[in-house]
């Protein structure tokens, strides 16, 4: 008797979260991408990345957001591609992007210069100073290869509503390739929202005094995703806490509730050097040593390596 | 008898908004910058730009934010520099930045290529494709000139607390140059916050049910800024509304309340093509025509032109 609950999530999505106008178009694009790569023998991962914007007004001046630079999603995308996956990258507009993420900490104009020996004035070549960006040639080459082979399909979202509808569309688009699809749900999704019907149209006036906000709980979309939209897929959720003492318990409870394959559990302060991959049967700690950090190893390389092996086992079991 | 109220804003700032550890250092830097340029005969403008982040938890996962790309502040900075001003650019981390703002809409890697005729492999020069970024040479040249002449001092903030304390420090730093200082307060500052003492330490748990947020009103910092911290300066505030019908009334009320020199009033939907500069005696509509838009004229050029003239008159009157 699961149907009423599930159709109620579908109903809620349609009623309380504005449907982006391009959702059908994006869905077709994702379905074509998935079947193209599956036919070429590749697995396909949908990565979600970045935080969701939750508007407080329909002509939005203010919004609630979740802390997330998108670093984990963007770097994971690169490692999945290196492992032979095709990647749908469903990310927050202007969050970190695969390959381009190397520009995050610099001002691009500080990395450019006029070519020595060029014609003076405004006509010369502008070149990258490879002292400032020592990896640029390697990264650009890789970026161009990936673009050439069409291994990366970027899709953007801004608001929570866009995220939810696009994730549903992605799940339906990927359902056609069964267990070859992985969902790597690394986005930092809001747990709370204000329904469209309860949202003021105009900017909330501060002259009205202190702000009382009453926010509803976002429906747990993982439930219909696992049960209905993409029931054969390999599904990974992420759990970020600030309090380490409740983390593993919450990860286990999520697996019990949603019956998906794994939770990547991490704590805000240590997330770049330590995660636990929790499955119903196992619990793997992935840790970067000081040596790793010195060698610029990224923890996403370990996470992706762990999960691609598990995905292979999962596919074998489905077939057997 | 204004003192108790003002010292109460100072007290509130110290008590309820965490003081950034580098505030004194930044203040000295700003004071040195201001006196250097004032001695060289330049006026100095402090531009604030971008939205403020209002944390909901002290180990922050969630925050309230204000919509603002920082475009107005970043482009205005360029026009102020072109008008002979030195600029302190107090901006939200990763919001748009003068000159660099041209990279906003492109993926930088799409604008780079290996130099034709270079050595194959990873060792060649990487150049900017000037078909993709036609203005790059001009912009880079101007950026380098401005850097060379040290006309731009960038200071970053993330949270509302950082913004408030750094603005106070800036006002005190600029008070030494009297009427030669302009404040151009274009940042989108939150009207609401949660005091440090009422903030939960850890991530709010969605298992506790719907979220009830009770947010206090941010103290109106324009009041001590105009009255106490920089009483001789030329001060411009910004008013953004979504409802055009209340805009001018709110602008006039702000001038009555804070007794500063001008309000730049604008409506969310039309803000890039239409603003009204409101002063106690005048009201100037600045409008971009279709012709202007075709010629890529930016409204900030008009705003800055209007205000630099008004600032000159203001300085003359002070001296007379």
UniProtKB/TrEMBL annotation, chains A, B:
Molecular function, one GO term: phosphopantothenate--cysteine ligase activity
Domain DNA/pantothenate metabolism flavoprotein C-terminal, chain residue ranges per copy: 43-95, 173-272
Q: Its domain of life?
A: Eukaryota
Q: Which InterPro entries match?
A: CoaB-like_sf, DNA/pantothenate-metab_flavo_C
| Gene3D superfamilies assigned to the protein according to its UniProt record, in alphabetical order | CoaB-like
Q: Name one GO biological process term.
A: coenzyme A biosynthetic process
The top EC class, named as a word, is ligase
The EC number(s) given in the record are: 6.3.2.51
What is catalyzed by this enzyme? (R)-4'-phosphopantothenate + L-cysteine + ATP = N-[(R)-4-phosphopantothenoyl]-L-cysteine + AMP + diphosphate + H(+); (R)-4'-phosphopantothenate + L-cysteine + CTP = N-[(R)-4-phosphopantothenoyl]-L-cysteine + CMP + diphosphate + H(+)
For this protein, the record's Pfam families field holds: DFP
Reported function: Catalyzes the second step in the biosynthesis of coenzyme A from vitamin B5, where cysteine is conjugated to 4'-phosphopantothenate to form 4-phosphopantothenoylcysteine. Has a preference for ATP over CTP as a cosubstrate.
Into which family does the record put it? Belongs to the PPC synthetase family.
- Under what name is this protein listed? Phosphopantothenate--cysteine ligase
């Amino acid at each position: 008797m699961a149907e009423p609950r599930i159709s109620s999530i579908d109903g809620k999505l349609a009623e309380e979260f504005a449907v982006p106008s391009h959702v059908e178009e994006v869905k077709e694009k994702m379905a074509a991408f998935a079947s193209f790569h599956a036919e070429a023998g590749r697995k396909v991962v949908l990565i979600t990345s970045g935080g969701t914007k939750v508007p407080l007004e329909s002509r939005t001046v203010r919004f609630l957001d979740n802390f997330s630079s998108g670093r984990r999603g963007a770097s994971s995308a690169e490692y999945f591609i290196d492992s032979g996956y095709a990647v749908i990258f469903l990310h927050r507009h202007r969050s970190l992007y695969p390959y381009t993420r190397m520009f995050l900490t610099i001002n691009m104009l500080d990395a450019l210069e006029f070519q020595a020996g060029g014609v003076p004035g405004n006509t010369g070549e502008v070149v990258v100073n490879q002292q400032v960006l020592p990896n640029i040639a390697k990264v650009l080459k890789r970026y161009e290869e990936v673009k050439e082979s069409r291994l990366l399909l970027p899709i953007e979202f801004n608001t929570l509503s866009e995220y939810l509808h696009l994730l549903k569309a992605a799940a339906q688009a990927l359902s056609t390739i069964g267990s070859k699809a992985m969902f790597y749900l690394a986005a930092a999704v809001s747990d709370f929202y204000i329904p469209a019907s309860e949202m003021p149209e105009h900017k909330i006036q501060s002259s009205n005094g202190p702000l009382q906000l009453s926010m509803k709980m976002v429906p747990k979309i993982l439930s219909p995703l696992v049960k209905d939209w993409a029931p054969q897929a390999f599904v990974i959720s992420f759990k970020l806490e600030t309090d380490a003492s409740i983390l593993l318990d919450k990860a286990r409870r999520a697996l019990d509730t949603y019956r998906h394959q794994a939770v990547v559990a991490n704590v805000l302060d240590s997330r770049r050097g330590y995660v636990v991959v929790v499955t119903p049967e196992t619990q793997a700690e992935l840790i970067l040593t000081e040596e790793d950090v010195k060698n610029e190893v990224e923890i996403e390389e370990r996470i992706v390596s762990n999960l691609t092996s598990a995905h292979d086992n999962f596919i074998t079991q489905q077939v057997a």
